[in-house]
Specification:
single chain, 291 residues, mainly beta
Length: 291
């Protein structure tokens, strides 16, 4: 039987690509709390000696995850119509993406999740898989909680928002978390870390005239972190204050706003904002102070 040069070349490319496409999955840590962004880092590498195009084909998405919860239960994505743009990978190139699994899958229940990333290569009609990694979703210890109304003239006016401060102990530190939710509807708008906290110092929390949350907590000896959180969980401002002759404290001003009294401003990061990642090619949410 005779083979043409083009047939032989195709067989060579297929065999090479089959052997040289690798998918690697990593998480920065194993332990997360419910509704916190779970950021997966995926590396796609190939050494096939030619450029390749990763694209959807015949109803097969070129990129995805398999997530198993308790008793081998496979989780369905929150949305089935999510489409990722095709990705061109140059010869010898490695592409890295960060994906927020919390925005894509129902991974808020307590327990262990077994996660595996997959890449579909249409030229071979074949899937390539990463090794399976395990992440654990746990509860956190509540510290403080307050329910407020959404003021008139704002989106969601008349609804209620519940702010919660929680702490979670890791192997080498304790982190302070904020959660914003509507308990009437069961919607959790956000949960994220405000940074490390010294466990012996309780955080200070105050609500301003717009019913927004202000938090001041001790992040390290003589260093205090200030956070301003909006009604839907937006991180509107984040700054660091150092103790001088006086310890920083939150205080109400005459116009109903909240100010930090005492200490010295060290490293403001005002107007930091968090946005959930929705596409593979998009950046993940802004990182918390201890990530």
């Amino acid at each position: 039987m005779k083979f043409s040069i083009s047939t032989a070349l195709f067989c060579f490319v297929v065999a090479t690509a089959h052997a040289q496409i690798q998918v690697e999955l990593n998480f920065k840590r194993v332990q997360y709390i419910a509704h916190e962004p779970i950021l997966a880092t995926v590396r796609i590498a190939h050494n096939s000696g030619r450029d390749i195009d990763l694209r959807d084909d015949s109803g097969q998405h070129w990129f995805g995850f398999e997530i198993n919860a308790g008793e081998g239960r496979l989780l369905a994505p929150l949305r089935s119509d999510t489409v990722e743009p095709a990705l061109h990978v140059g010869a010898g190139q490695t592409v890295t993406r960060k994906i927020n699994l919390t925005s894509l899958f129902p991974v808020h229940d307590f327990g262990a999740y077994h996660v595996r990333a997959n890449v579909f290569f249409a030229d071979l009609n074949k899937y390539f898989y990463s090794t399976t990694k395990v992440v654990q979703v746990n509860d956190a210890r509540p510290i403080w909680q307050k329910t407020v109304g959404v003021p008139e003239g704002m989106p969601g006016a008349g609804e209620a928002r519940t702010y919660s401060l929680l702490s979670n102990r890791f192997v080498d530190h304790t982190s302070l978390y904020v959660r914003v939710e509507n308990r009437d509807t069961g919607v959790v708008y956000t949960t994220y870390s405000l940074g490390r906290i010294i466990a012996s110092q309780d955080p200070q929390a105050e609500i301003d005239r717009a019913n927004q949350l202000h938090v001041l907590h001790c992040a390290s000896p003589r260093s205090w972190a200030y956070s301003h959180v909006g009604l839907n969980g937006e991180l509107l401002a984040h700054s660091t204050f150092l103790e001088t002759k006086s310890r920083p404290r939150l205080r109400h001003t005459s116009d109903g706003s909240i100010a930090v009294n005492g200490g010295m401003l060290d490293a403001p990061t005002a107007d930091a904002r968090r946005h959930p990642a929705q596409k593979l090619s998009e950046r993940p949410p802004a990182q918390s102070a201890d990530d």
